[in-house]
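=== RUN LOG ===
request id: a7f3
mode: sequence -> structure
chains: 1
length: 126
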Amino acid sequence: MSNDKRDILDVLKFELNFLEQGGYGRSVRTPWKPTSIFQDSLSCINFNDPKRPLPCSDCLFSDLVPAPAQAEDVPCHHIPLNADGETVDSMERQCNQTELEEAVKNWLRDAIAHIEAERAKAGKHS
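=== RESULT ===
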């Protein structure tokens, strides 16, 4: 369990909005360098710090990573995005940026809807 005190729903909604606004386009400062899903977003606890001083296990996205992938260099790239088990890591090698971003947007929408439904259900039983 992460030590991240942010609300997962807020972070997922922020990430979806970031993506929908074209957030992972090429950087103006470093247009030669490709951007990285999650890592190049304010959602990342190590955003804009190449030294990555905080362990990924402190990030709330780590709570969504399957146990076998927790030790990966970028664990959030191993979150299953769909029923086929595709991840950012696997899709980066076989899809273009547009396809990858669409898969992440779909995953975010599903995750948001799931959390909202769980919270609504829990609220009815309070």
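=== NOTES ===
The CA atoms of residues 9 and 39 lie 18 Å apart.
The mean pLDDT is 90.
=== END ===
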